[in-house]
Amino acid sequence: MRRPSGFLVACVMMVLPLCLPSSARAQAAAPAAAQPAAAAKQTVTFDTDVVLWAFQVKADKTADYDKAMEKLKAALQKITRPEAKQQLAGWKIIKNSTPQGDGSILYVHVLSPIVKGADYSILNLVYEAFTDYKEQKEFYDLYSGAVLKPYFAIQGPTIDFGK
Questions:
Q1: Contact, 128 vs 83, CB < 8 A?
Q2: Structure pTM?
Q3: Which of 102, 108, 153, 163 has the smallest number of CB atoms closer than 10 Å to its CB?
């Protein structure tokens, strides 16, 4: 008798992206579809307490993704808007030490506290801070070349066991 586990996993993988908020789906598609300084920029906003936002990165491109995230950090440090400083203070990234089944590495962005209404689009933030087209193109190529696919975004209130 065959076990339905493979079928269930496939169903979950197909339905999970539909559970993402539309803004997160737009950002998720951005690495594959956007170009530097695109005319119609898409924003990613969250309006909850905490967000876990994961990206699946090609196994041989983790150094590129790490470099892209350093550029994001530099962008948030360079942007003078107070919201960017708040985003920087509440943005952490966990690099999973165990590869996925296909060998890729999962990076989970832990965003807490959320700056309500602020744009969390990685591309938009880097492009805001670094306006030179060549530099934007280099970042885009580095970032989009490393990301295999966005994996999930979980957002919602927290339950504090300490209270």
A1: no
A2: 0.76
A3: 163
Rounded-to-integer distance, Cα 130 and Cα 108, Å: 24
Among 68, 82, 41, smallest CA distance to 147 is for 68
Return the CATH fold of 21-156. Alpha-Beta Plaits (3.30.70)
Sole residue written with tokens 């909850």: 48
**CA dist., res. 117 & res. 43, Å (int):** 10
Two structure tokens written together for 133:
């087209």
Per-position pLDDT tens, the chain of length 163: 444 434 333 443 443 444 445 445 445 444 544 455 554 589 999 999 999 999 999 999 999 999 999 999 999 999 999 999 999 999 999 999 999 999 999 999 999 999 999 999 999 999 999 999 999 999 999 999 999 999 999 998 888 899 8
